[in-house]
């Protein structure tokens, strides 16, 4: 059934585009590590706090955060000069649901 849904969604590019952005964002190990870091820090962190956890220059971390935001994996709240990045569970659930589909047995996946 999922294959039919994905083919239908290709026409409007909604869900397919979302998956493309998400998996492109997750392709980089630093972005995956940022998500893990934010998760273990309670699901939200300031940009400066995130940057201090990595050895990359600020522009590099800023770009990674922008890619995660554009993919919808994090949301951004601005408080004065501080940006807080929060995990977007709904978007992460898309990944989980997509990967879970491959864990189903073959008979189930065709129903």
Low-confidence stretches: 1-11
Radius of gyration: 16 Å
Helix and strand pattern? HHHEHHEEHH
The backbone outline, from C-alpha atoms, is: elongated
Mean pLDDT comes to: 86
* Beta strand count: 3
Distance between the termini: 6 Å
Topology, element by element:
Layout: H1 2-12, H2 14-26, H3 29-40, E1 44-46, H4 47-52, H5 58-70, E2 74-79, E3 82-87, H6 89-103, H7 106-109
Antiparallel strand pairs: 1-3, 2-3
Helix pairs in contact: 1-2, 2-5
Task: Please describe what this structure looks like.
- One of its GO terms (molecular function) is DNA-binding transcription factor activity.
- InterPro entries: ArsR-like_HTH (IPR011991), HTH_ArsR_DNA-bd_dom (IPR001845), HTH_MetalResp_TranReg (IPR051081), WH-like_DNA-bd_sf (IPR036388), WH_DNA-bd_sf (IPR036390).
- It comes from Actinocrispum wychmicini.
- The protein is of the alpha+beta class and 111 residues long.
- The chain has helices at 2-12, 14-26, 29-40, 47-52, 58-70, 89-103, 106-109, and strands at 44-46, 74-79, 82-87.
- The longest helix has 15 residues, at 89-103.
- The chain is elongated, with a radius of gyration of 16 Å.
- The termini are close together.
């Amino acid at each position: 059934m999922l294959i039919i849904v994905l083919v239908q969604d290709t026409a409007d590019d909604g869900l397919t585009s979302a998956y493309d952005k998400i998996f492109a964002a997750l392709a980089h190990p630093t972005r995956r590590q940022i998500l893990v870091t934010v998760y273990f820090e309670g699901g939200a962190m300031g940009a400066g706090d995130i940057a201090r956890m990595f050895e990359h220059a600020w522009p590099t971390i800023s770009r990674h955060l922008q890619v995660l935001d554009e993919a919808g994996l994090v949301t951004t709240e601005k408080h004065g000069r501080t940006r807080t990045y929060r995990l977007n569970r709904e978007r992460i659930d898309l990944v989980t649901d997509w990967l879970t589909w491959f864990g189903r047995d073959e008979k189930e996946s065709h129903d």
